[in-house]
Amino acid sequence: MTATPVTHEPADAVAPGTPAGGAPTASTPPATPTVPRRATPGWLLALPVPAVILLGWHFGAVHGWTLPFGIRMGYLPEPLDVGRRLVDFAVGGIYDDSFSRTLWQHLLASFLRVMQGFLLALVVAVPLGVAMGRSRTVFRMLEPTVNLVRPIPVTAWAPLALLLIGFGDRSTIFLVFLAAAFPILLNTITGVRQVPGRLLEAAAMLGTPPRQALLKVVLPAAAPSIVAGMRIALGLAWVILVVGETVGINTGLGALITQAREQSRTDVIVVGMVVIGLAGFATDRLLMLLLKLGLGRRPILT
Fold first, then answer.
1. pLDDT tier, 32 (very low <50, low <70, confident <90, very high otherwise)
2. Which of 40, 169, 263, 273 has the most crowded Cβ, counting Cβ within 10 A?
3. Cα(3)–Cα(49) distance, rounded to whole angstroms?
4. What does the pLDDT read at residue 175?
5. In this model, does residue 143 exceed pLDDT 90?
6. Number of neighbours of residue 169 by Cβ within 10 angstroms
7. Residue 42 neighbours by CB distance under 10 Å
8. Contact in structure between 227 and 300 (CB atoms under 8 Å)
């Protein structure tokens, strides 16, 4: 009598939650594949806030609301009137007055002044910030003076600039330069001083000369902070533009707002403000696009 050998067959693969010998039970439902949720587009998320502001503006102007600080919205034009004025300001054909079809010449004049002041600030502030961030001696020499001059508002510089420089583009460009220089300078100093020392040590071990390390290590590592300063500076440049174009300039968005104030044209004043906001937004996006194209995949946002 011979013994029959016992063979062990391999068990079938069993899905989690499924009993070995049959279908899934009611207490252990089968796992369903998860469908990744689609992210909401950024532009769609940005729409509700302007819509609420427009609605509040419309009802406030129609019903004459009085807001805190004594803001009487009954003196404001309605959004639709501002929209019609904006169209007439750009292409004419609605009111056909002295402000019609003058948008592009005012916008171009202001854009050139802002860019000249901003680029001048960029050329001066970035190298100076790198020097102050890398050298303790330079930092100690210049830091007290920078923090002494920095709190002086640009509006306080305006009368002195008109007396020293005179009326015209140069005084406005100088004021824009003052407004833009300090944010770039301070952010450059901060970014350079926060570069990890191990990066410089690694560059030195690889035989990188100090001057090349400045271009290949320090500036790329400090780029997010420098870019943040540039964005703040560009926004301030548009803010100060109105102050610089208030006196002695006939063409520009600030000059337009000044002329509209003298004529009590609130619709033109609001149109000028809207155009400055749109121009600031567009130049910020243009700056980021240029930086992304120039720096490639390197991170440029903090």
1. low
2. 169
3. 84
4. 94
5. yes
6. 19
7. 7
8. yes
pLDDT tens by residue, 241-264: 888 888 778 899 999 999 999 999
Nearest Cα to 231, choosing from 172, 290, 275?
A: 290
Q: Which whole number is the average pLDDT over 86-104?
A: 92
DSSP structural state of residue 50: H
Residue 100, helix vs strand vs coil: coil
Residue pLDDT, tens place only, 50-72: 999 999 999 999 999 999 989 99
CA–CA separation, 218 and 200 (whole Å):
8
Task: Compute the distance between CA of residue 229 and CA of residue 133 in angstroms, rounded to an integer.
Answer: 15
Q: For residues 180 and 191, what is the distance between their CA atoms, to the nearest angstrom?
A: 17
Report residue 162 as tokens.
Answer: 């008109």
Three-state secondary-structure class, residue 71: strand
- CB of 105 closer than 8 Å to CB of 256: no
As a whole number of angstroms, the distance between CA 66 and CA 189 comes to 45
E strand or H helix that includes residue 239:
helix 219-244
DSSP state of 214: I
Distance (Å, whole) CA 117 – CA 124: 11
